[in-house]
Each structure stands twice: as structure tokens, then as C-alpha cells.
Write a structure and sequence with these properties.
With about 140 residues, the chain is an alpha+beta fold. Helices cover about 30% and strands about 40% of the residues. α2 packs antiparallel against α3. The radius of gyration is 15 Å and the shape is elongated.
Length: about 140
């Protein structure tokens, strides 16, 4: 079975249960999950929502990132889904998970997966602030 069980961008709400199910495996003794949500503030400013946009290559790049992490860790399974479109405060923006033979490996692989996703996958965040102004964040 493929180590990369799920690597998608979606414009619909994300399911933590779906991601957990994707990495479930009898060989895995540890499963780590990261859930990223839209927070109500950033750098001292009130956030009222945001929008994610993605380059057409983003889903393929997400899979490439997951394959890189799979090659670097003894992962049994990896999964990652990221929202695109408009999100409200509290909405789930990203869910990643790693299952591995041991918990330490699962934590390390999960952290590496979210960190590399944020660093490499061309997804851009347009943050909306109270008062009506906005800015693109981490888009350079």
C-alpha cells in the first residue's frame, strides 16, 4: 500500500477523522496529527477571516513534499489536506498526520510534514482584519 494515503487541496470543510482513518495501519504504534485552525488575531491585530489561494501545481507539490517526508522517516502512512477558499475564525485550515512504528517517529514525521508543507507548497493566505483592511501573509 502507498505510504502517501491522502494529499489534497479542498474547498470544503476538512475532516480530522478522515485524515486519521487514512493513516490507520496495524503496523503503526504511533499516530501524530496536527490540526491548523484560523485564529482571531495575528501580530496584535484582530482577524475576522481569511482566504487561501493555491497555484495549480499545489496539489502535486503537496504530494512531492509528502513523498520527501516519507523517504526521510520510517513512516507507515502520511496524509495531508489543506483548505482553499474563504474561511472564518475557528475553521480548520489544514490537517496532517503521520503513522509510524513508534510515537517519536510519528511526532517527528508529522512536524516535518506540516513545516515542509508551509515552506514549499504554493498556497497563499489573504488575511482579513477588523476594520476592513487586509494583507497577503507569507506570500513572498
Amino acid at each position: 500500500m502507498d505510504t502517501i494515503r491522502l494529499a489534497e487541496l479542498r474547498d470544503t470543510p476538512l475532516s480530522v477523522d478522515e485524515v486519521l482513518s487514512a493513516v490507520a495501519d496495524p503496523e503503526a504504534g504511533g499516530v501524530a496529527v496536527f490540526v491548523g485552525a484560523v485564529r482571531d488575531h495575528d501580530q496584535g491585530r484582530d482577524v475576522v477571516g481569511l482566504g487561501y489561494s493555491a497555484h495549480p501545481s499545489a496539489e502535486a507539490e503537496l504530494r512531492r513534499v509528502a513523498e520527501k517526508i516519507a523517504a526521510s522517516f520510517s513512516a507507515t502512512a502520511l496524509a495531508a489536506v489543506h483548505r482553499v477558499g474563504d474561511l472564518a475564525v475557528g475553521d480548520v485550515a489544514v490537517v496532517v498526520a503521520a503513522s509510524c512504528p513508534h510515537r517519536g517517529e510519528a511526532f517527528d514525521a508529522c512536524r516535518a510534514l506540516i513545516d515542509e508543507l508551509k515552506r514549499s507548497v504554493p498556497i497563499w493566505k489573504h488575511q482579513l482584519y477588523a476594520g476592513g483592511d487586509s494583507e497577503w501573509v507569507n506570500s513572498a
